[in-house]
Amino acid sequence: MNKQSLAYTVIFTFIVCFVFVAILSVANQATAERVEQNQVVAQQRAILTAMGIEFDSDEEILGLYEEVEEIEVDDRIFYRTERDGEVVLATAFRGQGVWGTIIGVLAMDESLERTMGLEIISHEETPGLGGRITESWFKEQFRDREVPEGRLTYVRDSSPGAGEFEAITGATGTTDNMERILTDAVQTFKEKWGGERA
Amino acid sequence: MSDSAAPQTVGGVLTENLWHSNPIFMQVLGICSALAVTNLLVNTAIMSVGVIFVTMMSNLTVSILKSLFPRKVRMIVQVLIIAFYVIIVDIVLRAYLPDIHEALGPYVGLIITNCIIMGRAEAFAQSNGPLLSMWDGITSGAGYMGVLMTIAFFRELLAFGTLFGFTVMPAGFTPWVLMAMPPSAFFFLGIIIWIGKTIMYRQQEAAA
Description:
The structure holds two protein chains of two kinds.
Chain A: H1 6-51, H2 58-65, E1 69-73, E2 76-83, E3 86-96, E4 101-109, E5 114-122, H3 136-139, E6 145-146, E7 153-155, E8 164-166, H4 172-197
Parallel strand pairs in A: 7-8
Antiparallel strand pairs in A: 1-2, 2-3, 3-4, 4-5, 5-6
Chain B: H1 10-20, H2 31-36, H3 41-65, H4 74-96, H5 98-104, H6 107-110, H7 115-123, H8 130-160, E1 162-163, E2 166-167, H9 183-207
Antiparallel strand pairs in B: 1-2
Helix pairs in contact in B: 1-8, 3-4, 3-7, 3-8, 4-5, 4-7, 7-8, 8-9
C-alpha cells in the first residue's frame, strides 16, 4: 500500500490516535478510584493538620477523622472536633494568590479569638518564594495566635505579636494576598459560625 | 546536529549526548525547564527522571513504528507519542506519588514542550534501530539531567542554604533571593556553556 496516499495517512492517523488515547483512558480509569481516595485523604490530612492533630500514617488519618464533625452553616462546611478537651473549629478557604488560587484550611478556637492552625492544600505561587507558604515556619505562626480585631496583618522587621504574622522575604505579592485571604477566612468564621451560634 | 559523523555505537552515542552535543549546553535545547525547575534539587531530580523516561520510551516507540509513518503526519504522530508518555507519567505520579505530583505542579505536563524529546525523536529515532534509539533517549535525558542538577545545586545552595532540603550553610548565611528566581538560571547556564565550550575548544586545538 502506498504510505504517502491520503487514505493511508488518514487511516494511520486515526488508528494511532485511537490506540494511544484508548490506553490512556484505561490507565486513567484504572487509577481514578485511587486518585479520588488520595484527594479525600489529602483533604482530611489538611483539616487534621490545621487543627493540630498529629498522625503517623494515612491509615491513621481515616480513623482520626471519624472524630471530626462536619457542620454546614449557610452553604459552608465547618469542621468541629475536640483536642485535649478544647473545641477546635476549621473551615476550608480559597482566594486569589499571585499566579493562581490558594486553597487551604484555617482552624480557630471556639471563641473565634485565636487561630489554631493553618494548612495549605494547593497553590500556584512561585516555588521557593511565595511557595514558602507551605513551609512549616510559615504555617506554625498561626498555631495558637490571638486575633484581637478579627484580622491578621503581616510584619516585616519585628517579631509578630497578636494578630500578626511574619512576611515572606521576596514574596510581597503572596504575603499581601495571604493577609487578605486569611482575614477573609477569619471574617467568615465570625459571620457564619459566630453569627449563627452567638 | 554535531559536526562529526552520526554516532552509531553505544559508546559514541553516550559521549555525544553527555558531552559533544549535550542537549542543554551545546544544542541549547530544553532551556525553558532549565530555568523553571532548577531552584530545588528534589524537583529537578524528579523532573529529569520524567524527561529520561519520556525520551527513552518515545524514542523506542518512534523507532519501532517509523517505517509505518506517512511522511506528512510524521511529526504530528511523534508529538502524539511524546504526549502519551508524558500523560502516563502524570497519571502514575498522581495515583501513586500524590505528594510529589503536588510539588511538581504544572512542570510534568510541560515535559511535552521540551524540545529535546522532539529533537531526539526526529533526529535519531527516525533513522536508527529501536535499542540504540532507546539508549540515545536515556543518554540525552542524562545529559539534560547533568546540567540541570549542576545548576540546581548552586541555586538551591545560594538561595536557601540547603541541598535536597537539608541545611548545609552556616547559621549566619543570608539567602540570596535572586537565586530562587528564574533569571539566576541564565547566569549559571551562561557560565556552564562558557566552561564547556572553553574546554571543548582546548581539546580541538590540542587535537589539531
